[in-house]
Request: fold
Amino acid sequence: MRVFVAGATGAIGKQLVPRLVEAGHEVHGMTRSESKQAMLSELGAVPVVADALDPDQVAEAVGKARPDVIVHQLTAIGSLDPRHFDRDFAMTNRLRTEGTDHLLSAGQAVGVRRFVAQSYGAWPYARTGGPVKSEEDPLDPAPAREMRESLAAIRHLEQAVLGARWTVGIVLRYGAFYGPGTSGAPGGEQFELVRRRKFPLVGDGGGVWSFIHIADAAEATVAAVEHGNSGVYNVVDDDPAPVAEWLPVLAQKLGAKKPVRVPRVVGRLFAGEAGVVMMTELRGASNAKAKRELAWRPAHPSWRDGFAA
Ligand SMILES: NC(=O)c1ccc[n+]([C@@H]2O[C@H](COP(=O)([O-])OP(=O)(O)OC[C@H]3O[C@@H](n4cnc5c(N)ncnc54)[C@H](OP(=O)(O)O)[C@@H]3O)[C@@H](O)[C@H]2O)c1
Reply:
Protein backbone atom coordinates (compact mmCIF):
# COMPACT_ATOMS: atom_id res chain seq x y z
CA MET A 1 0.00 0.00 0.00
CA ARG A 2 0.98 3.64 -0.26
CA VAL A 3 1.21 5.02 3.28
CA PHE A 4 1.48 8.74 4.06
CA VAL A 5 3.10 9.34 7.47
CA ALA A 6 2.65 12.80 8.99
CA GLY A 7 5.24 13.06 11.77
CA ALA A 8 7.64 10.70 9.98
CA THR A 9 10.76 12.28 11.49
CA GLY A 10 9.66 12.09 15.15
CA ALA A 11 10.33 9.59 17.93
CA ILE A 12 7.62 7.20 16.71
CA GLY A 13 7.93 8.12 13.03
CA LYS A 14 11.59 7.07 12.88
CA GLN A 15 10.65 3.65 14.23
CA LEU A 16 7.54 3.34 12.12
CA VAL A 17 8.81 4.29 8.65
CA PRO A 18 11.48 1.55 8.32
CA ARG A 19 9.02 -1.06 9.59
CA LEU A 20 6.42 -0.05 7.00
CA VAL A 21 9.08 -0.12 4.27
CA GLU A 22 10.27 -3.54 5.47
CA ALA A 23 6.66 -4.78 5.26
CA GLY A 24 6.62 -3.81 1.57
CA HIS A 25 4.72 -0.51 1.70
CA GLU A 26 5.58 2.63 -0.26
CA VAL A 27 5.98 5.27 2.43
CA HIS A 28 5.65 9.03 1.94
CA GLY A 29 7.05 10.81 5.00
CA MET A 30 6.10 14.38 5.84
CA THR A 31 8.37 16.98 7.46
CA ARG A 32 8.45 20.77 7.64
CA SER A 33 12.19 20.85 7.01
CA GLU A 34 13.94 20.66 3.67
CA SER A 35 16.98 19.56 5.67
CA LYS A 36 15.29 16.40 7.00
CA GLN A 37 14.53 15.03 3.52
CA ALA A 38 17.81 13.11 3.37
CA MET A 39 17.05 11.43 6.69
CA LEU A 40 13.64 10.35 5.39
CA SER A 41 15.21 8.95 2.22
CA GLU A 42 17.65 6.97 4.37
CA LEU A 43 14.71 5.56 6.33
CA GLY A 44 13.28 4.39 3.00
CA ALA A 45 10.52 6.99 2.58
CA VAL A 46 9.72 9.43 -0.20
CA PRO A 47 10.22 12.81 1.55
CA VAL A 48 7.38 15.33 1.43
CA VAL A 49 7.84 18.88 2.74
CA ALA A 50 4.68 20.49 4.15
CA ASP A 51 3.43 22.32 7.23
CA ALA A 52 0.62 20.34 8.89
CA LEU A 53 -1.07 23.58 9.95
CA ASP A 54 -1.39 24.84 6.38
CA PRO A 55 -4.42 23.18 4.77
CA ASP A 56 -3.30 23.94 1.20
CA GLN A 57 0.16 22.45 1.73
CA VAL A 58 -1.35 19.34 3.33
CA ALA A 59 -3.90 18.93 0.53
CA GLU A 60 -1.17 19.26 -2.08
CA ALA A 61 1.20 16.83 -0.30
CA VAL A 62 -1.50 14.18 0.17
CA GLY A 63 -2.89 14.82 -3.33
CA LYS A 64 0.53 14.12 -4.86
CA ALA A 65 1.19 10.99 -2.79
CA ARG A 66 -2.34 9.58 -3.35
CA PRO A 67 -1.99 7.24 -0.36
CA ASP A 68 -4.16 4.29 0.60
CA VAL A 69 -3.51 5.01 4.28
CA ILE A 70 -2.68 8.15 6.28
CA VAL A 71 -0.90 7.87 9.65
CA HIS A 72 -1.07 10.95 11.90
CA GLN A 73 1.85 11.09 14.35
CA LEU A 74 2.12 14.88 14.67
CA THR A 75 3.11 16.26 18.07
CA ALA A 76 5.32 19.10 19.31
CA ILE A 77 5.77 18.31 22.96
CA GLY A 78 9.27 19.46 23.92
CA SER A 79 9.91 19.87 27.64
CA LEU A 80 6.92 19.77 29.94
CA ASP A 81 6.21 21.71 33.13
CA PRO A 82 3.05 20.12 34.57
CA ARG A 83 2.12 23.48 36.18
CA HIS A 84 1.69 24.80 32.64
CA PHE A 85 0.51 21.62 30.96
CA ASP A 86 -1.84 23.24 28.43
CA ARG A 87 0.69 25.97 27.61
CA ASP A 88 3.36 23.36 26.87
CA PHE A 89 0.91 21.28 24.83
CA ALA A 90 -0.49 24.27 22.91
CA MET A 91 1.21 23.44 19.60
CA THR A 92 0.47 19.71 19.99
CA ASN A 93 -3.15 20.64 20.64
CA ARG A 94 -3.25 22.59 17.37
CA LEU A 95 -1.77 19.59 15.57
CA ARG A 96 -4.45 17.40 17.17
CA THR A 97 -7.29 19.72 16.17
CA GLU A 98 -6.43 21.73 13.04
CA GLY A 99 -3.77 19.21 11.95
CA THR A 100 -6.22 16.32 12.19
CA ASP A 101 -8.90 18.21 10.28
CA HIS A 102 -6.51 19.14 7.46
CA LEU A 103 -5.25 15.57 7.09
CA LEU A 104 -8.80 14.19 7.13
CA SER A 105 -9.96 16.66 4.46
CA ALA A 106 -6.95 15.88 2.30
CA GLY A 107 -7.47 12.15 2.85
CA GLN A 108 -11.14 12.32 1.96
CA ALA A 109 -10.33 14.17 -1.26
CA VAL A 110 -8.17 11.25 -2.45
CA GLY A 111 -10.33 8.56 -0.83
CA VAL A 112 -7.91 7.04 1.69
CA ARG A 113 -9.06 3.63 2.88
CA ARG A 114 -7.64 3.94 6.37
CA PHE A 115 -6.71 6.78 8.73
CA VAL A 116 -4.62 5.87 11.78
CA ALA A 117 -4.02 8.57 14.41
CA GLN A 118 -1.97 8.92 17.56
CA SER A 119 -3.86 9.48 20.80
CA TYR A 120 -2.85 8.94 24.39
CA GLY A 121 -3.91 6.25 26.83
CA ALA A 122 -1.80 7.08 29.82
CA TRP A 123 -3.54 10.04 31.42
CA PRO A 124 -6.95 10.85 29.86
CA TYR A 125 -9.06 8.10 31.47
CA ALA A 126 -11.52 9.09 34.21
CA ARG A 127 -9.93 8.88 37.65
CA THR A 128 -12.68 6.75 39.17
CA GLY A 129 -13.23 3.02 39.61
CA GLY A 130 -10.63 0.33 39.02
CA PRO A 131 -6.94 0.94 38.28
CA VAL A 132 -6.87 -0.34 34.66
CA LYS A 133 -9.18 0.92 31.91
CA SER A 134 -10.44 -0.51 28.64
CA GLU A 135 -11.35 1.49 25.54
CA GLU A 136 -15.00 1.38 26.67
CA ASP A 137 -14.27 3.34 29.83
CA PRO A 138 -14.94 7.09 29.83
CA LEU A 139 -12.29 9.76 29.53
CA ASP A 140 -11.93 12.17 32.44
CA PRO A 141 -15.02 14.40 32.62
CA ALA A 142 -13.21 16.81 34.98
CA PRO A 143 -9.48 16.94 34.21
CA ALA A 144 -7.08 19.07 36.24
CA ARG A 145 -7.53 22.72 35.26
CA GLU A 146 -4.15 22.92 33.48
CA MET A 147 -4.99 19.85 31.35
CA ARG A 148 -8.42 20.84 30.03
CA GLU A 149 -7.38 22.16 26.63
CA SER A 150 -5.11 19.18 26.06
CA LEU A 151 -7.86 16.69 26.85
CA ALA A 152 -10.27 18.63 24.65
CA ALA A 153 -7.76 18.35 21.77
CA ILE A 154 -7.50 14.60 22.31
CA ARG A 155 -11.29 14.33 22.28
CA HIS A 156 -11.43 16.37 19.07
CA LEU A 157 -8.90 14.12 17.35
CA GLU A 158 -10.64 10.93 18.44
CA GLN A 159 -14.14 12.10 17.51
CA ALA A 160 -13.00 13.43 14.13
CA VAL A 161 -11.21 10.20 13.21
CA LEU A 162 -13.93 7.87 14.47
CA GLY A 163 -16.59 10.07 12.88
CA ALA A 164 -15.02 9.86 9.41
CA ARG A 165 -17.45 7.28 8.05
CA TRP A 166 -15.89 7.36 4.55
CA THR A 167 -12.75 5.56 5.82
CA VAL A 168 -11.60 3.09 8.48
CA GLY A 169 -10.69 5.46 11.32
CA ILE A 170 -8.34 4.02 13.92
CA VAL A 171 -7.25 5.77 17.11
CA LEU A 172 -4.21 4.39 18.91
CA ARG A 173 -4.04 5.40 22.57
CA TYR A 174 -0.35 4.89 23.22
CA GLY A 175 1.03 4.50 26.72
CA ALA A 176 3.94 6.66 27.89
CA PHE A 177 6.75 6.16 25.39
CA TYR A 178 10.17 5.01 26.46
CA GLY A 179 13.13 3.68 24.51
CA PRO A 180 15.49 5.06 21.84
CA GLY A 181 14.81 8.63 20.71
CA THR A 182 12.26 9.32 23.47
CA SER A 183 12.57 11.27 26.72
CA GLY A 184 12.41 7.85 28.42
CA ALA A 185 15.91 6.77 27.47
CA PRO A 186 19.28 7.14 29.19
CA GLY A 187 20.16 10.83 28.77
CA GLY A 188 16.53 11.65 27.80
CA GLU A 189 14.73 14.40 29.67
CA GLN A 190 12.41 12.25 31.80
CA PHE A 191 15.04 9.67 32.73
CA GLU A 192 17.48 12.48 33.58
CA LEU A 193 14.95 14.01 35.99
CA VAL A 194 14.70 10.64 37.75
CA ARG A 195 18.48 10.15 37.74
CA ARG A 196 19.00 13.62 39.23
CA ARG A 197 16.28 13.01 41.88
CA LYS A 198 14.13 15.78 40.41
CA PHE A 199 11.14 13.49 39.87
CA PRO A 200 9.74 13.09 43.40
CA LEU A 201 7.29 10.51 44.63
CA VAL A 202 4.24 12.60 45.53
CA GLY A 203 1.78 11.46 48.22
CA ASP A 204 1.17 7.73 48.07
CA GLY A 205 2.40 7.53 44.47
CA GLY A 206 -0.83 5.71 43.67
CA GLY A 207 -1.24 7.06 40.12
CA VAL A 208 -1.17 4.09 37.72
CA TRP A 209 0.95 4.55 34.58
CA SER A 210 0.90 2.49 31.40
CA PHE A 211 4.13 2.46 29.42
CA ILE A 212 5.01 1.29 25.93
CA HIS A 213 8.41 0.72 24.37
CA ILE A 214 8.65 2.89 21.25
CA ALA A 215 9.45 -0.14 19.06
CA ASP A 216 6.30 -1.91 20.29
CA ALA A 217 4.25 1.23 19.60
CA ALA A 218 5.60 1.20 16.04
CA GLU A 219 4.80 -2.51 15.58
CA ALA A 220 1.22 -1.95 16.74
CA THR A 221 0.92 0.94 14.29
CA VAL A 222 2.04 -1.25 11.39
CA ALA A 223 -0.65 -3.74 12.45
CA ALA A 224 -3.26 -0.95 12.47
CA VAL A 225 -2.15 0.20 9.01
CA GLU A 226 -2.66 -3.31 7.67
CA HIS A 227 -5.77 -4.51 9.48
CA GLY A 228 -8.20 -3.91 12.33
CA ASN A 229 -11.66 -2.42 12.40
CA SER A 230 -12.44 1.22 12.97
CA GLY A 231 -12.20 2.08 16.66
CA VAL A 232 -9.96 2.90 19.60
CA TYR A 233 -7.09 0.65 20.71
CA ASN A 234 -4.95 1.02 23.82
CA VAL A 235 -1.34 0.39 22.82
CA VAL A 236 0.32 -0.18 26.17
CA ASP A 237 2.41 -2.89 27.82
CA ASP A 238 1.09 -5.73 29.97
CA ASP A 239 2.11 -4.15 33.24
CA PRO A 240 0.28 -0.98 34.34
CA ALA A 241 1.83 0.03 37.66
CA PRO A 242 1.58 2.77 40.29
CA VAL A 243 4.29 5.42 40.44
CA ALA A 244 5.27 4.10 43.89
CA GLU A 245 6.23 0.84 42.16
CA TRP A 246 7.89 1.87 38.89
CA LEU A 247 9.69 5.04 39.99
CA PRO A 248 12.03 3.40 42.57
CA VAL A 249 12.78 0.56 40.12
CA LEU A 250 13.65 3.05 37.38
CA ALA A 251 15.82 5.11 39.78
CA GLN A 252 17.72 1.97 40.72
CA LYS A 253 18.21 0.96 37.06
CA LEU A 254 19.60 4.45 36.34
CA GLY A 255 22.02 4.15 39.27
CA ALA A 256 20.23 6.98 41.11
CA LYS A 257 19.40 7.29 44.79
CA LYS A 258 15.83 6.51 45.89
CA PRO A 259 13.34 9.17 44.74
CA VAL A 260 12.59 12.01 47.16
CA ARG A 261 9.16 11.62 48.81
CA VAL A 262 6.98 14.70 49.21
CA PRO A 263 3.44 15.12 50.57
CA ARG A 264 0.65 16.11 48.15
CA VAL A 265 0.61 19.69 49.37
CA VAL A 266 4.30 20.14 48.56
CA GLY A 267 3.83 18.31 45.23
CA ARG A 268 1.08 20.77 44.37
CA LEU A 269 3.43 23.71 44.95
CA PHE A 270 6.08 22.36 42.60
CA ALA A 271 4.06 20.43 40.04
CA GLY A 272 0.59 21.99 40.27
CA GLU A 273 -2.69 20.10 40.29
CA ALA A 274 -1.80 18.31 37.03
CA GLY A 275 1.45 17.00 38.53
CA VAL A 276 -0.31 15.73 41.65
CA VAL A 277 -3.02 14.06 39.57
CA MET A 278 -0.40 12.31 37.44
CA MET A 279 1.47 11.06 40.48
CA THR A 280 -1.49 10.00 42.61
CA GLU A 281 -4.70 9.51 40.60
CA LEU A 282 -4.08 8.35 37.04
CA ARG A 283 -5.54 5.11 35.80
CA GLY A 284 -3.67 2.66 33.58
CA ALA A 285 -4.91 0.99 30.38
CA SER A 286 -5.51 -2.57 29.21
CA ASN A 287 -4.06 -3.83 25.90
CA ALA A 288 -6.46 -6.81 25.62
CA LYS A 289 -8.32 -5.38 22.61
CA ALA A 290 -5.16 -4.51 20.65
CA LYS A 291 -3.80 -8.00 21.25
CA ARG A 292 -7.06 -9.61 20.23
CA GLU A 293 -7.99 -7.50 17.21
CA LEU A 294 -4.66 -6.26 15.86
CA ALA A 295 -2.90 -9.60 16.48
CA TRP A 296 -0.12 -7.65 18.19
CA ARG A 297 2.02 -8.54 21.20
CA PRO A 298 4.53 -6.20 22.85
CA ALA A 299 8.07 -7.54 22.61
CA HIS A 300 8.67 -5.64 25.87
CA PRO A 301 5.67 -6.81 27.93
CA SER A 302 6.84 -4.99 31.04
CA TRP A 303 8.69 -1.74 31.75
CA ARG A 304 10.51 -3.77 34.46
CA ASP A 305 12.66 -5.38 31.76
CA GLY A 306 12.08 -2.82 29.02
CA PHE A 307 13.66 0.07 30.96
CA ALA A 308 16.91 -1.88 30.98
CA ALA A 309 16.78 -2.80 27.28
N1 LIG B 1 2.75 8.60 24.14
C1 LIG B 1 3.81 9.29 24.53
O1 LIG B 1 4.38 9.07 25.60
C2 LIG B 1 4.38 10.35 23.64
C3 LIG B 1 3.72 10.78 22.49
C4 LIG B 1 4.33 11.73 21.67
C5 LIG B 1 5.58 12.22 22.00
N2 LIG B 1 6.17 11.76 23.12
C6 LIG B 1 7.53 12.21 23.49
O2 LIG B 1 7.69 13.59 23.37
C7 LIG B 1 9.05 13.86 23.06
C8 LIG B 1 9.13 14.87 21.95
O3 LIG B 1 8.22 14.63 20.99
P1 LIG B 1 7.86 15.81 20.01
O4 LIG B 1 6.40 15.77 19.81
O5 LIG B 1 8.48 17.08 20.46
O6 LIG B 1 8.60 15.52 18.70
P2 LIG B 1 8.96 14.36 17.79
O7 LIG B 1 8.97 13.04 18.42
O8 LIG B 1 10.21 14.88 17.22
O9 LIG B 1 7.80 14.30 16.64
C9 LIG B 1 7.13 15.36 16.11
C10 LIG B 1 6.81 15.06 14.66
O10 LIG B 1 5.76 15.92 14.26
C11 LIG B 1 6.21 16.67 13.13
N3 LIG B 1 5.61 18.01 13.18
C12 LIG B 1 5.44 18.81 14.24
N4 LIG B 1 4.86 19.97 13.87
C13 LIG B 1 4.65 19.88 12.53
C14 LIG B 1 4.07 20.74 11.56
N5 LIG B 1 3.57 21.95 11.88
N6 LIG B 1 4.04 20.32 10.29
C15 LIG B 1 4.55 19.13 9.92
N7 LIG B 1 5.10 18.27 10.79
C16 LIG B 1 5.15 18.64 12.08
C17 LIG B 1 7.70 16.72 13.22
O11 LIG B 1 8.21 16.92 11.91
P3 LIG B 1 9.41 17.93 11.55
O12 LIG B 1 9.99 18.43 12.83
O13 LIG B 1 10.37 17.08 10.78
O14 LIG B 1 8.79 18.97 10.73
C18 LIG B 1 7.98 15.33 13.75
O15 LIG B 1 7.99 14.39 12.71
C19 LIG B 1 9.70 12.54 22.70
O16 LIG B 1 10.46 12.14 23.81
C20 LIG B 1 8.53 11.61 22.54
O17 LIG B 1 8.89 10.31 22.93
C21 LIG B 1 5.60 10.86 23.95
User: Anything to note?
Assistant: The chain has twelve helices and 15 strands. The mean pLDDT is 97.
